[in-house]
Amino acid sequence: MANPFSTIPSAPGAVPVLGHAPRLVRDPLGFLESLPALGDLVRVRLGPMRAVVVCGVELTDVVLRDDHVFDKGGPFGDRVREFAGDGLSSCPHHLHRRQRRLVQPAFHASRLPDYARVMAREAAAAAESWGDGEVLDVLPRLVAITSRIVAATMFSDTLSKAGLDQVLADTTVLLTGMYRRMMTPPILDNVPTPGNRAYRKATVRLRRSLHQIVVERRRSGVGDGSDNGDLLSALLAAQDPQTRGRSTDVELTDQLITFFIAGAETAASTLAWALHVLATDAEVQARVRAEAAGILGTRVAAGHDTTTGRLITETMRRWPPVWMFTRTTTMATELGGHEIPADTAVIISPHLVHHRPDRYPDPHRFDLDRWTSAPTPRSPYLPFGGGPRKCVATTFALTEIGIVLAAITTRWHIEAVPGTEVKAGPAATLRPRGLRLRLTAHPSTTDLPSQRQAENPTHPEPESV
Known about the structure:
48% of the residues lie in helices and 11% in strands. It is α+β, with helices and mostly antiparallel strands.
């Protein structure tokens, strides 16, 4: 017989009314890393909400594999749904399989070469616009690159520069406010604070902007067999092989928001951390640069047989962009020998799993040699989630990150700026705060092969946004 929920060990440090929310705001990573010492399951309170943090690797796998019992929801999932609706990453189980079937064709391997050409073009243009000796505020520059890549691969030339800037500004407001709202009781959502007003305004405007793109593209006849080579064309054309139905305009809007935020924000965070590593290790930077021409030539995701591939893998272990997310139990169940009531928030943390010393010795040390082969069950790896809800765009993201790294390191040597301190800033994603890097031009970056390929592609490319 399973033990009662009350016998699960409780995390120390809860305060009246707010529970453990203050600890998750002040030092969330340290708090999460402290929990495995208490057990494979640990109870926490977020205000009045009961929740359990899954610390055991095997139990984490159980939760991720059974998305019928452990459905999308809880404080993270519910907040994402506020602006992304029932997109692929946030929809409940009963909608997910149909959504996945409709979205899968947009990420088919046959479409990736066209997306990769856009990635190479946008990354090269951005890298070329930087100046020798310039000191970069890194994260905003990378968000600008990845957002342009995502916009161009999603809707070709549909979104103007002003429109893209507004979409990017709105997503920044939402991602900044989402973690704060996770730790705030829902009863306070309608209090007219500046943060709540900005969040609601950004939600409405972002949904309206992307919905209008869907409506105009459908009105133009795209989806009747024509193909612009972008994600939206594939989504409009997709039919569910089981029901023969297509996505509605609202569903497409949800997907565009989901993919824009995931493709721009999480890729930029990973790239920023990777550049932080390269700026502090000249030898690794030289090895990555030596591989850049090959990556820009093939435009495929770097494998574990390359320094670039291992750099990306270890970066996403050490600083997983989505460092915590939640599920909710749809029924009473058993987990780890304990009863878990229905409507319990279940917290999964890739950061926690990636920093278990029994799975990753000396977990805070950045070590490329961990990845001479692909991850195994012994080395659990969750930057893209797991189970049936694993990210559908994993190959897209890894290709994008590798191409952008190659475009930057081909042209620039990067160095840390003395006197700056880089810290992890947990919000909706795990961002590096205070990251500033100095650029020095490599002497052999005039008329690069990668630039010639981008300027004279084998196949016609979508117009720049």
